[in-house]
Amino acid sequence: MIVIQKCLACDRWQHPGRPICLTCGDAENLGDAPVTGNGNVDSFTVVHRAAAPYIVARIRLVEGPIVLGHLADNPEPRCDQPVRFVHRDPLPVWIPGHHHPPSTRSR
Amino acid sequence: MSVAIAGAAECDLGKTGKTVLELQTQAVTRALADAGLTLADVDGIATNGISRFSATQIADYLGIQPFWCDSTFEGGAVFEMYVARAAQAIAAGQCSTVVISYASNQRSARSRNLTGVYTEGTPEASWEEPFRPLYPISYYAMVAQRYLHVHGLRRADLAGVAVAARARAQRNPAAWTYGKGPLTVDDVLAAELISSPLGALDCCLVTDGGGAIVMTSLDRARDLPREPVTVLGYGEKLTHTSMTSAADLLRTGAIDTGQRAFARAGLRPSEIDVVQLYDSFTISVPLGLEALGFAAPGEGLGVTVPHNTTGGGLAYCHPGQFGVLLLVEAVRQLRGECGERQVPGAATALVHGTGGILSSHATLILGVDRR
């Protein structure tokens, strides 16, 4: 499961979490809430400065916030590509395609 | 009160084997000599990158006790910010003669770090560092990837920026790549990939270098040896530190800083004769020129306004923060001192500095007070 900070006062998501809602200023009704784990690749870069190149991407969650992450199992990454969040060791990754149906659980 | 730039100079560039303070001393004293002034005239200092107390450090090193200083540190855009602050301080009477300086020995000292430095307790240390983006390259790479995707362009299109920069540097004897001959698009594409789509030749140089400018009132500058370069307008903006803050990678703070600077100067992009733009990476050039109003989105690669006449950070010199050398070249172009690379009759210049990962922006518009 992936959770993102949500303001229950104004129903907005924000990432990274902060002690204040940047939309409404509320500081009392912030908490982490599950998201679908579905997003789209806003942009990506293959980093070649390592023994094994890896793909860093900006993922635009369908809920709105943008997070940084790794793409995996993805021979042809592209901007606007649908991806979904899955747990891997040691870091979670985003693999091609959305969860169907959208689920707050991932495996 | 109008304020002017009365002197400008580079320190030694390239691979110097000198310390930062030795290079700073060169920059400051050469700019003062250019202005017909001495250290005894200086009562304001703006600099960074020397030590924890950078302005105090250089002041002590040069035997100055200034009445005004600025060591704002927001990356490579700060030198354009210093010009705005110095103009305000001089106009307000807090000081009369300001030196803005910078120098780095990063090539000699082998001090450049590709992975960046994260500060414990910041969101970036928790949410970005674990994924090991290169800093700042991977951010610019994602901007470039998005730019190519949105506008239907290819890496080869972007490579043309590096080819053009190398060609311009062949008209600048001070450039790191002067005399190294032309680049081809194939050369750029064949270079080692660092963070795709950016390869080694899409990235600015790593060199020693720096420079300084001297500012004073326009009235006083008119009695000094050089044609005064006047400060017509400026604008600055901070937008983000996180790689995930920008809703649209292609809309940068330069849009606002350009509009503010043009409004203050009462000018339009078509009235600018020469542009000095921080070309940290190839993508920075089309994106910056578009944001500043010199081209429509997606058309920045075809811009015709003369720009980055030195060869820029890609082909001339990149000492970590390039903003001060953008100022030096703009001043020289406006005075008509640039020899083979001179833009004929240049009377207005736009200088745009950028810091971090397109985090901080500052635009200046300069003119010249012809005798």
Automatic annotation (TrEMBL), chain A:
| Domain ChsH2 C-terminal OB-fold, first and last residues per copy | 34-86
**Span of domain ChsH2 rubredoxin-like zinc ribbon:** 2-27
Quote the Pfam families the UniProt record gives.
OB_ChsH2_C, zf-ChsH2
Name the chain's protein.
Answer: DUF35 domain-containing protein
Automatic annotation (TrEMBL), chain B:
Any one Pfam family match given in the protein's UniProt record, by short name: Thiolase_C_1
From the Swiss-Prot or TrEMBL record, what is one GO molecular function term?
Answer: acyltransferase activity, transferring groups other than amino-acyl groups
Domain Thiolase C-terminal positions: 235-367
Keywords linked to the UniProt accession: Transferase
Note the superkingdom of the native organism: Bacteria
> Per its UniProt record, what InterPro entries does this chain match?
Thiolase (IPR002155), Thiolase-like (IPR016039), Thiolase_C_2 (IPR055140)
Determine if Transferase is one of this entry's keywords. Answer: yes
UniProt protein name:
Acetyl-CoA acetyltransferase
Source organism per entry reads Actinoplanes regularis
Its lineage reads: Bacteria, Bacillati, Actinomycetota, Actinomycetes, Micromonosporales
